[in-house]
Amino acid sequence: MKRKVLVVFVAFMALAMLATPVLAIGPWQAVEANDNENFFVLFGGVGNRRGGANGTNVWAATEDFSVAWKWRDPMDAKGLMNTALVPTTVAEVILYASEDYDNKWIFLSGKPATGHGMLYYFWYGFTKSSAVASAIENANPNGELWMHNLIYNNVK
């Protein structure tokens, strides 16, 4: 008798799971729902401020590729700075943005006593706005650790 009840219960649960629509709620839906203060929109991508030393993640997708960026404060990165690539020119920042350097931490320096650090030039190159680049540089005087991962959707 117990076995029959168990079989009926398992069959009923399997039927219920098949009949229930499955929804994958990604970061875009969470931003649209506007119920999580950690999610934000950034130039067509979605960001997640995980808080504290955990940094920020940003996801963006087009028809051809997806990209994930991770950001960390170097003061709270617990040793990541020891293995990070450190560009000293804008050309090196561009080189490190290539897929050959996917999943590697890159240190973008903050604002020195004179001029701008690599964090400014990164954001200026990305946004073409000196106001945005200066604001981000001023908000991160120690610079930022950055990692990217580019995934092509339509591999031929």
Distance between the termini: 57 Å
> Nearest-angstrom radius of gyration?
22 Å
Tell me the domain tally. Answer: 1
Uncertain stretches: 15-28
Give the helix proportion (percent range). 25-40%
> β content, as a range?
15-25%
Kindly state the number of beta strands.
6
Largest sheet: 6 strands, antiparallel
Classify the secondary structure makeup into a structural class.
alpha+beta
Which outline best applies?
Answer: globular
Strand order of the largest sheet: 1-2-3-4-6-5
Order of helices and strands: HHEEEEHEHHE
Assembly state of the chains shown: single chain
Question: Number of helical segments?
Answer: 5
Mean pLDDT: 75
List keywords for this structure.
alpha+beta; 6-stranded antiparallel sheet; 5 helices; 33% helix
What does it look like?
The chain is an alpha+beta fold and 156 residues long. It has one domain (34-152). Helices cover 33% and strands 22% of the residues. It contains five helices and six strands, in the order H-H-E-E-E-E-H-E-H-H-E. It has helices at 2-19, 27-33, 90-96, 118-127, 130-139; strands at 39-42, 45-49, 56-61, 65-72, 106-108, 144-152. A six-stranded antiparallel sheet has the order 1-2-3-4-6-5. A hairpin with a 6-residue loop joins strand 2 (45-49) and strand 3.
What is the secondary structure topology, with strand pairs?
Blueprint: H1 2-19, H2 27-33, E1 39-42, E2 45-49, E3 56-61, E4 65-72, H3 90-96, E5 106-108, H4 118-127, H5 130-139, E6 144-152
Antiparallel strand pairs: 1-2, 2-3, 3-4, 4-6, 5-6
Helix pairs in contact: 4-5
